[in-house]
Write a structure and sequence with these properties.
Elements (H helix, E strand, L loop, with lengths): L1 E5 L3 E10 L15 E10 L10 E15 L4 E14 L4 E13 L3 E4 L2 E3 L2 E13 L6 E12 L2 E12 L5 E14 L2 E15 L4 E10 L4 E13 L2 E12 L4 E10 L6
Antiparallel strand pairs: 1-2, 2-3, 3-4, 4-5, 5-6, 6-9, 7-8, 9-10, 10-11, 11-12, 12-13, 13-14, 14-15, 15-16, 16-17
Length: 264
């Protein structure tokens, strides 16, 4: 169940989802079963107008996600408070605070040699993100998040670039770096992600995502070709590959999907 309200000044949202223990999605997946999830969000959108001509609007907001089991015992809660400043050139600046509660029913293995024990955890994080004007040929984004991670610490850095000559080809490499100090030691995860998008026409597209993860010691690739041969009907060709840094292929798949819409 969900209800939303949007107008020039306010955005409001309320949602409720109930997934019982024996639910079988058949196609696709659900993150977890046996839960009751409630969500609420409120956004205020004042516009400074001529008082601050270089700012289009402010967007302070607060949202909460509350997840319990079928006996209404709390399992997870996210409380986000943030403010987004949208500038006249479409660039934006966002500040966010996230408070998290997690109840681990059993130990959680974050990497082969490190495990977070079961129990109740409360932690919070603060982040700032600046994104440039994406309508330009060159633009970028830079961000930082720092805070707690269960009973350790977390730092995340984000740096992204967007290049789109003629708005046909776009390459968006981004780099994420995180350091987590856990009870049993510390480790560093480096993630480099490059995304390419090319539009041959308004009905034919090519997307590529290549990602390197030093913790897993592998390079993963995802290539997707999409042809809209008639309205609402598509042909997808997808190639997925996971390869170790030594060149060993760990997983490879070629997938084709064809859709056709019948008109009655």
């Amino acid at each position: 169940f969900s209800v939303t309200w949007n107008d020039p000044r306010f955005d409001m949202e309320a949602r409720y989802l109930d997934i019982e223990e024996n639910f079988n999605p058949e196609v696709g997946f659900v993150p977890r079963t046996g839960i009751r999830k409630s969500r609420g969000k409120f956004t205020y959108k004042p516009r400074p107008g001529e008082r601050i001509p270089w700012i289009r609007d402010f967007k302070p907001s607060v949202s909460v996600d509350h997840i319990t089991d079928q006996e209404n015992e709390l399992e997870t809660r996210f409380l986000n408070t943030e403010i987004t400043i949208l500038f006249q050139d479409s660039s934006s600046l966002r500040f966010r605070r996230t408070a998290i509660f997690e109840r681990l029913q059993e130990p959680f293995q974050i990497r082969p040699d490190q495990t977070i024990p079961g129990g109740d955890y409360q932690f919070q994080a603060y982040s700032v993100l600046f994104s440039g004007d994406r309508s330009r040929m060159f633009s970028g984004a830079v961000g930082l998040e720092k805070g707690d991670f269960f009973d350790g610490d977390q730092e995340l850095y984000f740096l992204g670039f967007l290049f789109q000559p003629g708005h046909r080809l776009s390459a968006e490499p981004s780099w994420n770096y995180g350091q987590f100090d856990l009870p049993s030691g510390e480790f560093t995860t480096s993630l480099f992600r490059t995304r390419f998008q090319y539009s041959f026409s308004t009905t034919m597209f090519l997307n590529a995502l290549i990602q390197y993860n030093n913790t897993l010691g592998e390079i993963s690739s995802n290539l997707r070709f999409n042809w809209i041969y008639q309205p609402l009907s598509d042909l997808f060709l997808v190639y997925n590959e996971r390869r170790s840094t030594t060149g060993e292929v760990r997983e490879r798949a070629l997938i084709a999907k064809f859709t056709y819409v019948f008109n009655f």
